[in-house]
Write a structure and sequence with these properties.
Layout: E1 3-12, E2 17-27, E3 30-35, E4 45-48, E5 53-56, E6 58-63, H1 80-96, E7 99-104, H2 110-117, E8 125-128, E9 132-134, E10 160-162, H3 165-178, E11 184-187, H4 206-218, E12 223-229, H5 230-238, E13 243-249, H6 252-261, E14 264-266, H7 269-278, H8 299-309, H9 329-334, H10 340-346, H11 349-354, E15 372-375, H12 388-391, E16 392-397, E17 400-401
Parallel strand pairs: 1-4, 1-5, 6-7, 7-8, 9-10, 11-12, 12-13, 13-14
Antiparallel strand pairs: 1-2, 2-3, 5-15, 15-16, 16-17
Helix pairs in contact: 3-4, 5-6
């Protein structure tokens, strides 16, 4: 089936230009043709765009699609089949909001990705890392102090897995690679949702981090690191980590180190704002709410530092439970620091480079995947992205217009 989008303003995110009055032919899941004149095709489905704006499908580079509840410690206690059913609802919401590709950095696995690819679940394409690697007592260890053992079957849903020592981390990385991981996630810093660590604690020795990076590189993959503090970010980047998540407590010296190393930053301001406002009401453990205060206000300062230094920043949200509905709020939270074009690039072309799919997604171009959004207003104008949901008229994934 051929679909033709007629009379569209196509947005060139690389050059920051609007290509007026274009006609896009979509076939076989890709953009076959972009023409300045009408495209003749007798049997095509024609969608009049009428001067609205066509942008690439959005990429959220930091999600946890299985986190249907804000109490992450509950996930392993639930039936994996029940979690899968809840995840289908989460994924449908993401696609409805215009996200056609997501990078899951803890929780999703090959079964969910396959279900989406085969059309069993309607949602964005999933690039998964399996379970994040965590040292004992680290951010991926959700055992309370009084519990020593838990069901360690891989089929039980959780965002992380424990591994310790050089041999242990290599074995765990190889296992995630065996299961088809697109990247390897490590917990190199303390976190908010974990019960026994501090946000300021470094996690994994530098030798362990280097060993995980080595395993990923041998498989032509890269490492994603959960990190807040400048010290933890520096430890990760020095040892080859390519993708720094959060980074709320960055400083200028560490930002320079990231720039020199070619590392990406994925801020997740949406997560911290949501947790501070509705976390407790959403089921997030009350005893961990105080941790949020340490990173809430510093996040936008880190974004400003990284933007001034030219560190490439992807779009990420890290939302959990009912807070997934705030997935588009990251645009508004960065708006005072990042101009509209660069903000749009974060959610499209920069995200595509981060996940090594820059030749397939992230642009409105011929022979790219037909993942597109149609907006009623120009996204390069100030304030439009902050009101993305209000302006979103149509979502297209793989050349198929989605019901909204």
């Amino acid at each position: 089936m051929i679909t033709i989008l007629e009379n569209a303003n196509a947005v060139d995110v690389e050059n920051g230009e609007i290509l007026a009055d274009r006609h896009l032919s979509l076939e076989g899941g890709v953009i076959r043709e972009i023409s300045e004149s009408a495209i003749a095709c007798a049997n095509a489905r024609r969608i009049p765009v009428n001067g609205r704006f066509v942008i690439p499908g959005l990429i959220d580079a930091h999600v946890h699609v299985t986190a249907y509840t804000a109490n992450l410690g509950e996930l392993p206690r639930q039936s994996p089949m029940y979690v899968a059913a809840q995840t289908a609802r989460v994924l449908a919401g993401m696609l409805r909001r215009g996200f056609t590709t997501v990078r899951d950095v803890g929780g999703a696995e090959f079964g969910l990705a396959r279900a989406v690819e085969e059309g069993l679940i309607n949602g964005p394409r999933i690039l998964y890392g399996g379970k994040a690697l965590s040292p004992s007592g680290g951010h991926g260890d959700h055992r309370p102090m009084g519990v020593d053992r838990e069901d360690e079957a891989y089929s039980q849903v959780s965002l992380g897995r424990r591994c310790d020592g050089i041999d242990g981390v290599r074995r765990a990385a190889r296992d995630e690679i065996r299961r088809g991981a697109h990247h390897i996630k490590i917990m190199a810093n303390g976190g908010i949702s974990s019960p026994t660590d501090k946000i300021t604690s470094d996690q994994f020795s530098e030798d362990e981090i280097a060993a995980i990076v080595d395993e990923a590189r041998m498989a032509n993959l890269y490492v994603v690191s959960h990190t807040y503090t400048a010290r933890s970010v520096a430890r990760a980047v020095r040892n080859g980590v390519r993708s720094v998540e959060h980074g709320n407590l960055l400083d200028e010296e560490t930002v320079f180190l990231m720039k020199e190393a070619g590392s990406f930053l994925t801020p997740t301001l949406a997560c911290f704002r949501a947790l501070s406002e509705v976390g407790a009401a959403s089921g997030f453990p009350i005893d961990r709410m105080d941790k949020i205060k340490l990173v809430l206000d510093s996040g936008i300062k880190a974004v400003e530092l990284a933007y001034r230094a030219g560190v490439p920043m992807a779009y990420g949200t890290d939302l959990i439970g009912p807070m997934h509905e705030r997935q588009l709020s990251e645009f508004a939270l960065r708006a005072d620091v990042v101009p509209p074009l660069d903000m749009l690039r974060s959610a499209t072309s920069v995200g595509a480079r981060l996940v090594n799919l820059e030749s397939e997604i992230g642009h409105v171009r011929e022979n790219y995947r037909a993942d597109l959004n149609v907006l009623s207003a120009n996204p390069l104008e100030k304030g439009v992205l902050a009101e993305f949901a209000r302006h979103l008229d149509l979502v297209v994934k793989g050349g198929v217009a989605q019901d909204r």
